[in-house]
Design a protein that fits this description.
Helices cover about 0% and strands about 30% of the residues. It is built from no helices and four strands. The chain has strands spanning about 30-40, 45-50, 60-65, 75. It is globular, with a radius of gyration of 18 Å.
Length: about 100
């Protein structure tokens, strides 16, 4: 029987100066900054970041950067707040999905 040898092929490489964004970067008071969904919109990196306020309630805030590492433009207030009827204390983290638009040809 032939043994399979697992090779270490990293899909992503961790940025050596992580975290890229932290509570100190936020334009308003937050208790914590968590992982974000990321995408490219109009050539810029856009993050939808889950943050937590000092009551422990999470919300989502958009952050944008031309290089995806520096010079972040963070929305001045939460972009998406919790929905009191369905998720009163948190905004569920959502992955981003890009669907190419069809153009008439």
């Amino acid at each position: 029987m032939k043994r399979m040898v697992k090779q270490n092929h990293e899909l992503f490489v961790r940025y050596e100066r992580n975290p890229i964004l932290s509570v100190e970067d936020w334009p308003y008071d937050v208790n914590a900054v968590f992982n974000a969904a990321a995408g490219i919109v109009d050539g810029r990196t856009v993050l939808l970041v889950r943050t937590e306020d000092f009551r422990g309630i999470s919300h989502l805030t958009a952050a944008r950067s031309s290089d995806g590492i520096t010079n972040w433009e963070i929305d001045e207030r939460p972009t998406i707040l919790p929905q009191p009827d369905t998720h009163p204390h948190t905004c569920p983290s959502q992955p981003l999905l890009s669907i190419p638009s069809k153009t008439a040809g």
